[in-house]
Specification:
Elements: H1 4-10, E1 16-21, E2 27-33, H2 36-42, H3 51-59, E3 62-67, H4 71-85, E4 92-93, E5 101-104, E6 113-116, E7 125-127, H5 133-147, H6 168-171, H7 185-199, H8 204-219, H9 223-240, E8 253-261, E9 264-273, E10 276-286, H10 293-307, E11 314-317, H11 324-335, E12 340-342, H12 347-366, H13 368-389, E13 396-405, E14 408-418, E15 421-422, E16 428-431, H14 440-463, E17 478-481, H15 485-498, E18 503-509, E19 515-520, E20 523-526, H16 532-565, H17 573-582, H18 586-591, H19 594-598, H20 605-623
Parallel strand pairs: 8-11, 11-12, 13-17, 17-18
Antiparallel strand pairs: 1-2, 1-3, 4-10, 5-6, 5-7, 8-9, 9-10, 13-14, 14-15, 14-16, 18-19, 19-20
Length: 624
């Protein structure tokens, strides 16, 4: 039993992170403190607070804390715990977007050029981030096409690899085959220098070259090719355009503006690299309560820069944040160089801040109705569901489905909705192990037993300091079964055996297989089919069906591919898996040409010819 007064007395006068739990053990708030003793005690003293904090305090059942060596360590741990647990009462960054960079491995004898979302200090050149991802991909494809850079990850020394044969890309004139010694590193690097010059912003020479090719193609009446060149030129101009923002110096900086209206906040970020605006993106903050603009910005900076792979030299903020010095020191440590956090009040940089603020305000006005609609579809629907069943508003919903064809390859699926939105990262697939034939109830019992035994084991190991928590450790507030009394009883029987107490409801169908009500606590509760709660239930139903059917279809396809490919001489498990990864279906393998098959990983020309001949022979036999 948690004794609040006793636990408060035990709090140390040291820096650390405190974690508030509700009665179901869910984490509802994470905070850091220079002195845990002073900070945590404040929550339980009588004082005037915002309604949001009062609601949070009323739900606290117990708390825990982690002592660390410094305020910096507390900041890092706080950011990690917030990102991992997404507590309900922390002001959260709703969007978790990352954008790609174009990476040039300039330290290699024969550098590669490719997209990546990771930015590390490895001596390579990184360009970006690119918010227009499609244009970045097209531009990269154009650069590789023009300069024939290699795509493999082999360590290729100057002079090539002795005995190496050129790959299919070389035969398709897409690679100069440095691995065979066909091109020197000096000649190859001249092309890389042109690519780097282009990525640095000097696109004039390449655009001129492409315009010439576009005119030649048009003159030769090759209009499709001319259109391709036109689109490439358009992508290049889009990705390199300066737009309205330029800077007098050529530094790298992010400009961060903020707009707040009621319970909604939008943060606008401009990505300025080399003095040019290479992209911009906006982010929503939720559960802001009565927090000040400075507090909202402070939370954004902590959460956003704890996850972004690239930290610019300078971060310009529209608000002076309370933890600027601490966060600046933390980011400098992460980046390996000094990072400056500033809130300019005059000059060119203030103009950039005003522009970012103006953009944020415009987005907030533009998306006001959209945000209200989204809130109605998510938190509004959950509130309706809670009122309908007379339960607390559920944060996490799990739903399960079983799929098979006459008992063949029976599979189970689990989908998760958090705060009214799907959470695909927590979805799980189950291949039924213990049930033979079409027994949905037994299959469902196996799925539920495996899922919750796994979750309970994780929690026990974590409490003993021996394991790591995953999404299985988070138990739902309510489970939705796609069926009535039978499915609900199966679930409740499993929970009784495991000693688990979780709400379970079933979705009751009418004669036309349409949901007409919710079976909960041995009662069928009617539901308005026009309500937001009903629409949410329908979305959950459709999603769990889709996920189960897709998994079952994939397994059937794999079984089919396995059985046929096993009959081809020279195709063992390694090549079979490579073919399955490379091609989407058996039909795609059957229709592929020899060169396309040979270009697959672990395949050679002899193996490709064997696959090609096998399917041609089957076609001939079918024809006769």
């Amino acid at each position: 039993m948690f004794d609040l007064e006793e636990e408060l007395k035990k709090l140390p006068d040291k820096p650390g992170v405190y974690i508030m739990h509700d009665a179901s053990d869910a984490i509802i708030y994470v905070g850091k403190a220079v002195s845990l003793k002073n900070r945590v005690r404040q929550y339980f003293q009588k004082r005037v607070r915002s309604p949001k904090i009062e609601r949070m305090i009323s739900l606290i059942d117990h708390f825990e804390y982690i002592v660390v060596g410094s305020e910096m360590e507390a900041l890092v741990l706080e950011c990690n715990l917030i990102k991992e647990n997404r507590p309900k009462y922390n002001t959260m960054l709703m969007d978790d977007k990352t954008y790609p960079f174009i990476k040039v491995t300039v330290k290699e004898a024969f550098p590669r050029v490719f997209l990546t979302r990771k930015h590390v200090n490895d001596g390579a050149r990184y360009f970006g981030p690119y918010t227009n991802v499609e244009a970045a991909r097209n531009t990269l494809e154009m650069l590789n096409g023009l300069y024939h850079t290699r795509k493999c990850r082999k360590a290729v020394p100057d002079g090539g690899i002795p005995g190496e044969r050129a790959c299919l890309y070389h035969h398709m004139k897409q690679c100069d085959a440095p691995c065979t010694g066909a091109i020197s590193s000096e000649e190859y690097k001249r092309s890389i220098d042109k690519i780097v010059e282009f990525l640095d912003g000097n696109s004039g020479p390449i655009v001129k070259e492409l315009e010439g090719k576009m005119k030649e193609a048009a003159a030769a009446m090759e209009f499709e090719k001319a259109a391709e060149y036109r689109d490439l030129i358009s992508d290049i101009k889009r990705i390199n355009q300066v737009q309205r923002v330029t800077s007098e110096d050529e530094g790298n900086r992010d400009v961060v503006g903020l707009a707040v209206a009621g319970e909604e906040a939008v943060v606008q970020v401009f990505f300025i690299r080399g003095g040019k605006l290479v992209g911009k993106e906006h982010y929503y903050m939720n559960d802001i309560g009565s927090e000040t603009r400075a507090e909202i910005m402070n939370e954004f900076v902590k959460q956003y820069y704890s996850g972004t792979p690239s930290i610019p030299k300078e971060i310009l903020l529209s608000e002076e944040i309370p933890e600027a010095e601490l966060i600046g020191a933390w980011l400098s440590e992460r980046a390996g160089s000094k990072i400056y956090i500033r809130s300019p009040k005059r000059g060119e940089k203030e103009g950039l801040i005003k522009l970012a603020n103006s953009n944020a305000s415009g987005i907030l006005i533009r998306d006001g109705e959209k945000l209200a609609e989204a809130k109605k579809r998510t938190s509004g629907a959950l509130e309706e569901l809670a009122q309908l069943l007379d339960i607390p508003v559920p944060e996490r919903i799990e739903a399960y489905d079983i799929s098979h064809i006459s008992g063949f390859e029976t599979v189970g699926s689990m989908v998760v909705y958090e705060n009214g939105r799907p959470k695909p990262g927590d979805y799980r697939k189950f291949r039924i192990r213990t049930v033979t034939g079409p027994d949905d109830y037994a299959s469902l019992a196996e799925v539920l037993t495996r899922r919750f035994e796994h979750g309970r084991k994780e929690l026990e190991e974590a409490n003993a300091g021996e394991g790591k928590l995953t999404s299985f450790s988070k138990f739902p507030d309510i489970i939705m079964m796609d069926g009535g009394r039978g499915q609900v009883n199966v679930c409740l029987e499993v929970f009784e055996k495991l000693g688990i107490d979780i709400r379970v409801c079933g979705l009751v169908k009418d004669d036309n297989h349409r949901t007409r009500g919710i079976y909960y606590n041995n009662i069928e509760v009617p539901i308005d089919t026009g309500s937001e709660a009903f629409k949410l239930i329908t979305r959950v139903q459709d999603e769990v069906h889709r996920f189960a059917i897709e998994y079952h279809r994939m397994l059937r396809s794999k079984e089919q591919v396995h059985s046929i490919l096993d009959d081809i001489e020279g195709i063992g498990p390694v090549r079979r898996r490579a073919l399955m990864r490379h091609f989407e279906s058996l039909e795609a393998i059957r229709n592929a040409g020899v060169e396309e098959l040979a270009g697959c990983e672990n395949m050679n020309m002899a193996a490709a010819e064997a696959v090609y001949a096998f399917f041609r022979k089957k076609e001939d036999n079918n024809g006769t």
